[in-house]
Amino acid sequence: MIPIQIVLISAVVFIAFYMYLRLRSSLLDAVLIFLFCGVAVFFILFPDMTTKIAQWMGVKRGINLVFYSITVFFFFLILKLYSRMRRLENKFTEMIRENSLNKAEELSDKKS
Amino acid sequence: MAADNHSIFIIVPGFNEALVIRQTIETLFEKKYSVVVVDDASTDNTRKVLLGLPVYYIRHLSNLGQGAAIRTGMQLALKKNAEYIVTFDADGQHDVKDIEKMIAILQQEKADIIFGSRFLEGAATNVHRSRKIVLKTARLINYLASGILLSDANNGLRAMTREAALKMQITENRSSHNAQVQNLVKKYNLKYAECPVNISYSDYSKKKGLRNINSIRILYDLILYKIFR
Fold first, then answer.
1. Burial of B227 (0-12, 13-18, 19+ CB in 10 A)
2. What is the pLDDT of residues B12-51, one digit of tens each?
3. Do B57 and A100 count as a contact with CB atoms less than 8 A apart?
4. Is the pTM of this model over 0.90?
5. Which residues pair with B11 in a beta bridge?
6. Cβ separation of A112 and B52 shorter than 8 Å?
7. In this complex, is the C-beta atom of B76 within 8 Å of any C-beta atom belonging to chain A?
8. ipTM of the complex
9. Strand locations in chain B, DSSP E?
10. In whole angstroms, what is the distance from residue B123 CA to residue B119 CA?
11. Cβ of A97 and B68 within 8 Å?
């Protein structure tokens, strides 16, 4: 094993463990996390495999394929996060609105 | 007719407009309109300068944007049995006389919503040339986004009936709510019309109002709205 592999594998294992601790709500989450983790560790140990898959898909180098997949994945992630943000903003707006309507006042009889 | 104007509710959304809001609102009392001020979490003394005036005052705990403030005000007005709802900017750029004209169109033509326009014949405005270009572009973009072509797409002065107001579920908190309103008009097939209105840009409203650069932000909001609604 070369040093970079040790660094990457420890990072992946740490992230997987951390995520498991935080989201151990469902079995499916755990399975997914460890599946991803397993795939990542596999490709870190056998980087040539990415090139094989890449060539099978018509891409020259494995690293390019990884780069393309990550781009698509991150784009998807941004969209997901953004729609969640909008939902949160809507809830927040509703709460502020309800609070303000409950406290609506008439200022005519209030003196400065 | 002035007697039953209390069922005409004027929504005045304001964010840090304490310097001019009292002056703006006082012009509305002559016609005995009901006034709802929505203070969008101003950090100045907006509430204090309004004390003693016959207005409903609502304050957001956190700044949400003009679209959100308008919707909050509309909800209060509907609760208070408003027959007509008018949105009116706090910075004094609108002319109170236009409200009467707009309500008259609503009644005579049985329209659901009237949009104020500073570009129709009969409107007096001192809008700057660069601002004009931006507004003309915004008009086309809003047309593409909503399917309704108005001569002035981002005018804060609008009048609508109670029935139309019930359908105006604005979820766009910021300035892209203008396009959303047009969208809802199209969606519910509301009968709309435009009315020439006077806009006077004072140095104050020029400084406080939307700068041309903000239109990029509005465009961005609008694109996101089209994707995620």
1. exposed
2. 999 999 999 999 999 999 889 999 999 999 999 999 999 9
3. no
4. no
5. B36, B87
6. yes
7. yes
8. 0.84
9. 8-14, 34-39, 56-59, 84-87, 113-117, 158-161, 192-196
10. 6
11. yes
